[in-house]
Amino acid sequence: MAAPGASAVMLPVAAVAAALLEASEGCVNAEELAGRLFLRPGLVRAALERLAEAGGLELSGDRACIADRVELALAAVRLGVPETAVARGLDWRMFEEYAARALREAGFEARRGLRLHGRGGLELDVLGLDPAGGLAVAIDCKHWSPRVSTPSRLRAAAARHRARVERLAASWRRLGLPQGRWRIVPALLVLRESVPRLAEGVAVVPASRLRGFIEELPVLAEEPAIHVVRLEA
Which residue segments constitute the domains of the chain, with CATH numbers given? Predict the structure, then answer.
């Protein structure tokens, strides 16, 4: 059974986490944050304590400072804060790191910023690898505002990413990636909630469903509608 007041403590955690991540300053005062959010100072302090315990935030008296913005985002999600709410508080580089750390938390090896120059070059945001299952996921992170994430733009991005994953498979050895049999699932990670599940054979994943998507990867890798690229040993 939850301790008395636990539900009350959890109510402002999402608002506090979002405010911290969206703020340009690295440190905030609990009293000032309470006034900004129209919440009781005691509730804000309790929420800050929960976030500090979960990771990424340091507390000193009434002053809270972000030690690691991506870790704070992941900690907030572990506490039940919607992923989209925290992802909006990250810039595009942090959005990529957020995806990479989510993969690592799920047991994947994660690599960021794979590059090959020259003709037929390659740029890939995040690659997750599960050697035991021979399963890989190639993620293109689109930190677009929901307003500009139109269906036509998503389809175009998906088509480009599908071709990118084909180049990834062709360049696998040159990139020094682990050899063997692999199934590579292509995915776009977006902020918008109302998006098609698939576009051009590529999984379209709202940030709010990232963890569930990672958990479902073994099943998705067998889905005929997804353009899974297979590598033989």
Answer: 6-86 (1.10.10.10), 91-231 (3.40.1350)
